[in-house]
């Protein structure tokens, strides 16, 4: 039997000022100072900052409003509810790259791992140097990182929440003498239930749903869930609001929603903001809108140990191995439920799969983050974004090299067998087997590559001929239209992106507040 998520919206459970499809049964017109499209890392942060600054804010979100009580360990049901397209989204290329985005109030923060890292200083320096982001140096950004970290409670895990899979990752790194950091996560006494990617059932993870959204509501913002925005409205170059429709229970289009606003903020994420702007007739003079798509591609290995690991006990990603960070590689242990790991070098059916899954409790699933040099783009098909991304040979070989290093660490920690995310070498049974892998001989078309870090499709920069927005997120060649999401990144950042997005959204919101008289006139 397929379990559905519990019904979220019992009377009295929805906070005041959150409105759902049940509240918008007829065509509706709303007015406010700022309308924000999307309620994820960027949108929710901007909403809280702008509302706290005294502006009248409306947030429109295509996904539903779920509360902490709705999140369960039924991964398949949670994926259907919380992941856009049920998680079955991919960038076309060879290999295709599976990518995931959240669709719910709180956006992808509802399903993310909670890793919270500042943008590395060398990346900020590069943005200053190469993209003219003169206000984004490490010193300038410190105020924004501090502020975000206070709002979302960034800290190390309580030690008792760390499970055996992560302990083994640390043992392996320590034996190799490799640099390993305790992860910084946005959490309050997370007990380590390892359900982060399917909604945190304890509320410990400080996703936007339980941090910035309540803060925005407290300062008077209104949040409308179940509204898909189709277009931004304009008077000449000046953005004047948005047009959308209620998304019915069965996904069909319901009542029309029109919002008239002095300022429009697009925060639909790196895939959907370019699509919204494109549908609205915005054409960046630089031609970069929807281009420069970076993906932080990652691959995973499954290592089987002699002991009972029970990787589902303990927090998701307690550590990051940073020994190879300068080469653009970061490793972590990333337990996944049985229904999800099929794609990691596993046979997809039959007795062989059954035998392997018998070993589930002895598995460490580990993966890497790879700072990419490949660039993809979005194409619009009937107003919908289709991502294309061709992993170049350099990045493909970097993924193989990273896999070899990760396998070294796991064998050092005591792994007996390792399943690889590409064809050719077969399963590894000892560290000696690693030496037989030649990165140049691996056919990249056979790689199982995925990502949850899409960025860069509406890049900031001081030169309108190379960028989509200025350094405050204001869209070039448009008036009173801002972007606050992962699309803003001029380059990939090599670490998990949420905190960077939140810091940039805070910065852009403060810019709007400082100049509000001009924008509201
Ligand atoms: C499984 C997973 C794990 C991750 N783990 C981490 C991690 O540990 N640390 C980290 O730093 N990052 C992590 N990330 C990435 C991080 O969560 C995202 O980079 C970040 O949330 C992106 O912020 P955003 O504001 O750009 O978009 P999102 O947070 O995705 O929010 C965009 C919102 O806009 C809505 N929207 C889109 N189009 C429309 C429309 N037309 N009308 C109305 N609403 C619309 C979407 O439904 C969505 O809710 C993870 C992501 C995933 C999916
Ligand atoms: S591991 Fe911690 S943050 Fe993740 S879902 Fe469990 S309690 Fe929440």
Give an overview of the whole structure.
There is one protein chain. The protein is of the alpha/beta class. The chain folds into two domains: 6-89 and 102-115 and 117-150 and 206-288 and 458-520, FAD/NAD(P)-binding domain, CATH 3.50.50.60; 155-187 and 298-371 and 392-448, Cholesterol Oxidase, domain 2, CATH 3.30.410. 25% of the residues lie in helices and 20% in strands. It contains twelve helices and 21 strands. It has helices at residues 41-52, 75-82, 121-131, 138-152, 164-176, 212-218, 269-279, 350-358, 393-412, 431-434, 498-514, 516-520, and strands at 18-19, 28-37, 57-60, 89-91, 97-99, 154-155, 180-182, 185-186, 222-224, 227-235, 238-247, 253-266, 300-304, 319-321, 329-333, 363-370, 377-381, 384-388, 417-419, 449-451, 481-483. Strands 1, 2, 3, 9, 10, 11, 12 and 21 form an eight-stranded mixed beta sheet that branches. A hairpin with a 2-residue loop joins strand 10 (227-235) and strand 11. The longest helix has 20 residues, at 393-412. The site of flavin-adenine dinucleotide (FAD) has 40 residues, from helix 1, strand 10, helix 7 and helix 11.
Number of helices: 12
Under CATH, the topology of the largest domain can be stated as: FAD/NAD(P)-binding domain
Percent helix: 25-40%
Number of domains: 2
Mean of pLDDT: 95
Described by the principal axes of the CA atoms, the overall outline is globular
Number of β-strand runs: 21
CATH level 1 class label of the largest domain: Alpha Beta
Distance between the termini: 57 Å
Question: Structural class of the secondary structure composition?
Answer: alpha/beta
Ligand roster: flavin-adenine dinucleotide, iron/sulfur cluster
Q: Mind telling me the CATH superfamily name of the largest domain?
A: FAD/NAD(P)-binding domain
Low-confidence runs: 1-6
The name of the CATH architecture of the largest domain is 3-Layer(bba) Sandwich
Query: What characterizes the major β-sheet?
Result: 8 strands, mixed
Strand content: 15-25%
- Over all CA atoms, what is the radius of gyration? 22 Å
């Amino acid at each position: 039997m397929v379990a559905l998520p519990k019904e979220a919206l019992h009377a009295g459970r929805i906070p005041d000022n959150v409105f759902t499809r049940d509240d918008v049964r007829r065509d509706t017109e709303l007015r406010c100072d700022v309308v924000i499209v999307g309620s994820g890392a960027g949108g929710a942060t901007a909403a809280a900052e702008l509302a706290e600054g005294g502006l009248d804010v409306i947030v429109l979100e295509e996904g539903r409003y779920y509360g902490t009580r709705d999140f369960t360990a039924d991964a398949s049901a949670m994926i259907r509810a919380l992941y856009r397209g049920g998680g079955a989204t991919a960038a076309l290329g060879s290999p295709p790259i599976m990518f995931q985005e959240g669709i719910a109030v709180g956006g992808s923060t509802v399903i993310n791992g909670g890793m919270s890292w500042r943008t590395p200083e060398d990346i900020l320096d590069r943005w200053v140097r190469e993209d003219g982001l003169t206000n984004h140096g490490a010193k300038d950004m410190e105020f924004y990182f501090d502020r975000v970290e206070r709002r979302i409670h960034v800290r190390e895990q309580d030690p008792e929440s760390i499970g055996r899979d992560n302990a083994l990752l640390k043992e392996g790194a320590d034996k190799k003498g490799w640099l390993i950091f305790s992860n910084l996560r946005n959490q309050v006494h997370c007990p380590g239930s390892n359900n982060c990617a399917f909604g945190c059932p304890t509320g410990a993870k400080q996703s936007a749903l339980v941090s910035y959204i309540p803060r925005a509501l407290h300062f008077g913002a209104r949040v409308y869930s179940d509204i898909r925005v189709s277009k931004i409205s304009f008077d000449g170059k000046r953005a004047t609001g948005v047009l959308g429709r209620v998304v019915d229970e069965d996904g069909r289009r319901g009542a029309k929603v029109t919002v008239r606003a002095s300022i429009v903020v697009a925060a639909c994420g790196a895939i959907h903001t370019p699509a919204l702007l494109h549908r609205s007739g915005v054409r960046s003079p630089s031609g970069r809108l929807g281009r420069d798509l970076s993906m932080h591609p990652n691959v995973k290995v499954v290592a089987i140990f002699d002991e009972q690991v029970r990787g589902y006990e303990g927090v998701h990603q307690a550590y990051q191995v940073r020994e190879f960070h300068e080469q653009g590689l970061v490793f972590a242990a990333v337990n996944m439920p049985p229904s999800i790991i099929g794609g990691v070098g596993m046979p997809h059916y039959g007795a062989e799969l059954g035998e392997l899954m018998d070993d589930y409790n002895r598995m460490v699933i580990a993966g890497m983050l790879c700072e990419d040099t490949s660039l993809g783009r979005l194409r619009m098909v009937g107003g919908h974004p289709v991502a294309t991304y061709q992993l170049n040979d350099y990045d493909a070989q970097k993924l193989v090299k990273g896999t070899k290093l990760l396998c070294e660490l796991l064998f050092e920690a005591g792994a007996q067998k390792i399943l690889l995310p590409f064809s050719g070498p077969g399963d590894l049974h000892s560290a000696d087997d690693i030496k037989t892998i030649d990165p140049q001989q691996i056919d990249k078309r056979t790689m199982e590559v995925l990502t949850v870090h899409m960025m860069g499709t509406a890049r900031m920069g001081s030169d309108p001929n190379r960028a989509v927005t200025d350094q405050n997120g204001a869209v070039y060649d448009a008036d009173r239209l801002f972007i606050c999401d992962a699309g803003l990144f001029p380059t990939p950042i090599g670490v998990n992106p949420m905190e960077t997005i939140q810091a940039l959204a805070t910065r852009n919101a403060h810019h709007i507040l400082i100049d509000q008289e001009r924008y509201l006139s």
